[in-house]
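Input sequence (554 aa), recorded before submission:
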Amino acid sequence: MLNKSPLQIARQSYLPKMPVALLGHVALREGKSTESVADQAEIKRLFPNTYGMPFLSFEPAKKGDIPVHTEKPIRVGVILSGGQAPGGHNVICGLFDALKKLNPDNQLYGFLGGPSGLVDHKYKLLTDQIIDEYRNTGGFDIIGSGRTKLEQPEQFDSGIEICHELGISAIVIIGGDDSNTNACVLAEYYRQKDCGIQVIGCPKTIDGDLKNEMIETSFGFDTACKTYSELIGNIQRDANSAKKYWHFIRLMGRSASHIALECALQSQPNVCIISEEVQANNMTLNDVVSEICKVIVARAEKGLNFGTILIPEGLIEFIPAMKSLIQELNDLLANNDEFVALEGDDIKREYVKSALSDEARELYRSLPRPIAKQLTMDRDPHGNVQVSLIETEKLLIEMIRKRLAKMTAEGTYHGKFATQNHFFGYEGRCAIPSNFDADYTYSLGQTAAGLIAAGKTGYMAVVRNLTAPAAEWKAGGCPITMMMNIERRNGKAKPVIQKALVDLNGRPFTYLKQNRELWANSDTSYIYPGPIQYYGPSEVCNQPTRTLKLEHEK
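Predicted structure, token format:
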């Protein structure tokens, strides 16, 4: 890094706050044996060597305790897996510092480009000079990331080969639910082979869906939501100033609506759609349009022809009828050479309509043509619809525009409907981590090192009690098998970490539900969060997400 901003330079000297339990000499305490969240018999059968292990916690060593330590130098490998999340570099920095504290001769290798670096034997030794360049920075560029899945014995064996060649006795995989599922499979395989390689996971994803009773939040969620909320606040200030645009804002979060919910709690928009609520109420696309139109019409009657609407990226997949349509399209068009050979959009459209069920055909015909075309043209290598590429905000704008035009003709709507559309995604994935994420991830790295020194495998590093000051956080390890269940993926039953969806009975969603009518009809309820603050009063710089605070409110 030759050129740096003043903030980059200042952040490099920031010293992350840590739990007291990780300072000085540390002792390990074992809790009760655990079991998976579901499908216990099947998960136990698949993971006989790593199932049922106890929850672990680190505490300051007392007289008579044997502190966690490494008697001889060890070598550890680290992998960044999946999409970027703010704080990944600090996990590595915390891991590095803890290893060096345990023994100055310990070494840390970074596998390059994600899990493929392990399989293809691409790596680099991480030194003090390299680590110091990346302290408290965003991104994953220290070693790069990738989405290669570790599923085949040939991949596992290739990993054994390079680990033995380098003398590596432990691997830390920093990733989301799929990546940590891979870590669990790898840990089981290496334990079964008795090859002397431990595997530890760290919970990463800005989507916020890697959470459970032991993981209060995944890292990166705090920073990403604060980054998006700043942008939403800026747009709301503009909307309240110009008073002429409806802003439709799509936010990352395909599998769950945690980001949309948290950003709504931080900025108080006029409308926030929660996919899980749409699914629970069996709403159609037209139902969603109707709900938004009610707000637009009500505001227009007060002369308020502007507002903000938050839309989760994965909304389409949560609408039952749309989900059924997508499934029919997947079945129809996967490896369909006849469809590919057709020429002209109209001919392809008629082909699709003729092959769909009556209900799916009616829905397909009601969609704006550009969206209908996206559903048939943009497909992944398996032939499936790439839902994340569907511009849902544009779909809703077009459908609402038609609905309002009809209402205008009927004399039931007298407002103006001018729109702007936005998608906030990559803007939040590599932001400079907030103090919360910088502290949290550094502590996760330190915890992972402690689990390695204690000889553990098949665990995820966890840091809890996150609404308290960092000194009071609690560090430990949770067996990854504890988080798993059996789900169907690509037609096959597979063990995977259970995703956490928005809890419609939880305090965060309840707060939204209780306030949505006020936010919908008022032009003064907007909150303007502003940019992430790194220096200043604790209540400005060190706050966790609103979601965390509401979930742990007493």
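Checked by second reader. DSSP finds 23 helices and 15 strands in the chain.
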